[in-house]
Amino acid sequence: VNYRLSAPALLGALLILAPTAHAIEFNQFQPGKSTLSFVSKQMNVPVEGRFKSFRGKLAFDPAQPAAARAEFEIDLASIDAGSKDADDEVAGKAWFNTKEFPVARFVATSVKPLDGNRFEVAGKMSIKGKTLDLATPVSVTRQGNNATFDGSLVLKRADYGIGDGIWADFGTVANEVQIKFRLVATAAAAK
Amino acid sequence: MNQGYRWPLVSLHWLTLLLIAAAFVIGNVLEDMALSPLKLKLYAWHKWLGMTVLFLLPLRLLARATERLDQSVGLLPWEARASLLVHAALYLLMFAVPFLGWLSSSAAGFQVVWFGVLPLPDLLDKNKELGDLLQQVHMLLNFSMAALVVAHLGAALKHHFIDRDDILARMIPFLGTATGGTK
Question: Is A42 left (phi over 0), alpha (psi -120 to 50) or beta?
C-alpha cells in the first residue's frame, strides 16, 4: 500500500470525510458500566435499591438527537430492594409479579434537545402489563469514545399497579419512587 | 413526700419504663412477622420509641445527678452495693440498647427517621453481615436488660412487701409510705 498521498488528494479525502467526521454515534450499550437504581420511601425512610440485570439498544448522535433510538429491558427479578425480605416480597403478585411479568421495557419515541448537553427523552414504559407515556430530561456527558446518559425521574408505583392489596396505602410505602439511571454507550463503527 | 424522688426523675423513670416496655414487646413481635405494611409500621415505631429512650437519657442523667435524695438511704451495705451495680448496668443499657439498634439499622441500610420527621444520620455504611451481628448483640443486651429489670422490680417489691420500708414509695408519689408514718 502506498501511504504517500498528494496534498490535493488528501484535501479531497478530508472534504469527503468531513460531513461524517463530526457525526459520532454512540451505539454500543454497555450494561456492565451502567446502573439503574431507585429510592423508595418506607415510613418516610428513603431506601435505596437497584436492578442488577438489564440490557438494551441505544444509538445516539449528538448532532442528530431526533434520530436517536433507545430501547431497554429490565429483569425485574434482579432487583435489590434493600433487604432479602423486600426482594422476596416485591417479586410477588402484589408487586411486580415477576412470574407473569418478568421484564419491564422502555422504548424511546422521541428525543429533543433541551439546553447544553441536556435532552428530553420521551417514550413508553411497560411494567406489569401496563404501558404508559413517560418523558424525562437526560444529560449526556461525552468522554472520548464513551457517552454517559444520566437522569432521574419519579415513577408512581400505583400507575402500574405495583404494590396493591395490603400495600396500596401510600402511608407505609410512598407512591413516588425516584428512579436514577446512568447509561453508558460507546461509539463503534457508525452504521 | 419529702422522702421521695423529685418529679423530674420520677416522671422520667416511668416514661422510660413505658417506652422500653413497648419497644421491647414490639421488637419481639417483629422477630416472627412476615413482611407486611404492619411490620414496617411496627419497625418504625420500635425505632422511634428506642430513639426516644436514647434522647431522654441525658435528661434522666441530669435529673439523677441533681437529685438530692441518696438512693442508698435505708439500705444495708450489701443492698446498697447491689443497687448501685444494677442501676449502673441499667443506665448503661439504656444507652447501649437503643444505640446498638441505631447502629444495626444504619448497617442494614435503613436510615432512622425519628417519627417520620427527623432524619438521624447513618452511623455506619451499609454492611449486611455487620448489621446482622449488631442486631444479635442488640437482642442479647435486651434480654440482659429485661433480666435486670426483673431483678430491679423484685428488689422494689421485696422492700415494699417484705421489708415494708419506703424504698418503692420514693418512686411512686401516690403510694404513700408502707410503714404509714415516717414522713
Answer: beta
Nearest CB to A86: which of B35, B41, B113? B35
* Minimum-distance CB partner of A85 among B35, B41, B44: B35
A174 to chain B: closest CA residue: B37
Residues 6+ apart with CB under 8 A from B59: B8, B12
CA distance B102 to chain A (A): 14
pLDDT in tens, B58-93: 999 999 999 887 888 888 899 899 999 999 999 999
Neighbouring-strand partners of residue A154: A178
pTM of the model: 0.84
Query: How crowded is residue B47: how many other Cβ atoms within 10 Å of its Cβ?
Result: 26
Report the distance separating Cα A56 and Cα A166, nearest Å: 34
A55 Cβ partners below 8 Å, 6+ apart?
A29, A31, A72, A73
Mark yes or no for CB contact A86/B41 under 8 Å: no
Grid cell at residue A16: 469527503
